[in-house]
Amino acid sequence: MSVIRSLWAYPFMVNAFRAGTVVAVLAAVMGWFTVLRRQTFAGHTLAMVSFPGAAFATLLGVAPGLGYFGFCVGAAGVLAVLGPRETGHDAALTGTVQSALLACGYLFVALYKGFLGGVDSLLFGSFLGITDAQVVTLALIAAAALGALAIMGRPLLLASVDPAVAAARGVPVRALSAAFMVLLGAATAGASQITGSLLVFALLVVPAATAQQLTARPGLGLALSVVIALAVVWTGLAAAYYTPYPIGFHVTSIAFACYVLARLRRLAGGPA
Prior knowledge:
Blueprint: H1 2-7, H2 11-36, H3 40-60, H4 64-82, H5 89-111, H6 119-124, H7 132-161, H8 163-168, H9 173-214, H10 218-242, H11 247-267
Helix pairs in contact: 2-7, 2-9, 2-10, 3-4, 3-5, 3-9, 4-9, 7-9, 9-10, 9-11, 10-11
């Protein structure tokens, strides 16, 4: 108990845990569908384009949040048009979009003199400098995204597992794919403002991939993804508080260790 009281003795740590909890739940649920749909490369692209978005907003002198949402949702719209799956030509186009936008990001950084010191926070986030208003905004974004996902969750699940059967049953597969991609872009934009462009991708993919190594049951897999993400974020925050190493290192290392253990368990013949 003394350890928990010590962690929460400062308002910045309380807000870090609040924001981390929201980000973990949001990323775990969106990430579970992303991994199931084999769209992790698209998720990586959306996470990375938040960097040029924030850089462009700063160059224009407007709130970075506008850049996060403008670029992430815009890129999600482009990817939705390119195709529902990351195979062959679509994956190449996704990589091309990512490369072009990253190049723009570095150009925006170069054009804005003196901005170079903020690149680290754009890439790795600022968990320990979050305000109450940011926590509330993030919670509202997460509630909206998860609420929309809950409404279309069942048909989206069917369209993700077997698009042909879903289409035969009248499910609008292409429209659902586009809607999910836009939701993923909005969720990535909201989370990236806290976690940075790189850490949000780790939280989107690794807990969900770990859960899917442990079980093929959708409900249990979603629950496991959330539990793993929460454990990773909370443990990472605590480790960062008591050690001199950055939270990004702790979160990604713990998440990777969880995935390796789950993978070894599956290779050893554990039940899925």
